[in-house]
User: Which sequence fits this backbone?
């Protein structure tokens, strides 16, 4: 159905509770896509959770890039001032302008940065080379599907046009590439000094930039510590 026809004969819209993301009433596909469009919100919550519990400098830098990307989106919206499609069709819209799509820019920033992190930052540290590459490829495909689904949901739900979503994806991808290499070349060499600051030590902020595969490192260290404590506990009980 053409966009003009959708706007001229709009369906009744139903909102997901609390979030105010709206989908056509009785449309199961629209309802599913409405939930998918909330993935950027879940990503932001995940970042805050990771920072609170991990307190790792690269994660903090990644989140800073997300916030910077959001700021760039706001600036672009107010420079381009392109309205959303079917103006007034949704009862709750937090930004008047739609170019570029905020959801699309955020999700593609996250996905492209994650791609670069997976293939350039994380290196192989054990002998399971094929398995390691396989899970990276599978995860990359899943992330690509997630970003595409979020982008499509914004068009399907009439929050954005295809051009607005495409420009958001391009802007987010470009920002991700710039921020990744800025983090690697400029910020990462400063991480050891930042981690040594008294305020960083007080809040247990840590730097893991010299550890090639943090997942493997944390797994082996945790397993070794658990075994040592189990042996000590067994010795006391004898």
Assistant:
């Amino acid at each position: 159905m053409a966009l003009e026809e959708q706007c001229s004969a709009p369906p009744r819209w139903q909102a997901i509770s609390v979030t105010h993301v709206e989908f056509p009433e009785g449309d199961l596909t629209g309802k599913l896509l409405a939930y998918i469009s909330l993935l950027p919100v879940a990503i932001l919550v995940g970042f805050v959770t990771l920072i609170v519990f991990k307190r790792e400098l690269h994660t903090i830098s990644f989140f800073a890039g997300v916030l910077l990307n959001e700021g760039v989106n706001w600036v672009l919206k107010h420079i381009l001032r392109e309205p959303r499609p079917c103006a007034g069709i949704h009862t709750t819209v937090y930004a008047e302008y739609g170019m570029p799509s905020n959801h699309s820019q955020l999700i593609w920033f996250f996905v492209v940065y994650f791609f670069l992190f997976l293939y350039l930052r994380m290196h192989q540290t054990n002998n399971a080379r094929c398995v390691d590459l396989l899970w990276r490829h599978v995860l990359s495909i899943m992330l690509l599907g997630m970003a595409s689904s979020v982008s499509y949901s914004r068009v399907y739900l009439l929050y954005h046009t295809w051009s607005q979503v495409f420009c958001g994806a391009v802007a987010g991808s470009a920002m991700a590439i710039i921020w990744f290499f800025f983090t690697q070349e400029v910020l990462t060499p400063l991480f050891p000094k930042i981690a040594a600051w008294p305020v960083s030590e007080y809040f247990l902020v840590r730097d893991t930039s010299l550890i090639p595969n943090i997942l493997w490192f944390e797994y082996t260290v945790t397993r070794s510590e658990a075994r040592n404590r189990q042996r000590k506990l067994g010795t006391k009980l004898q």
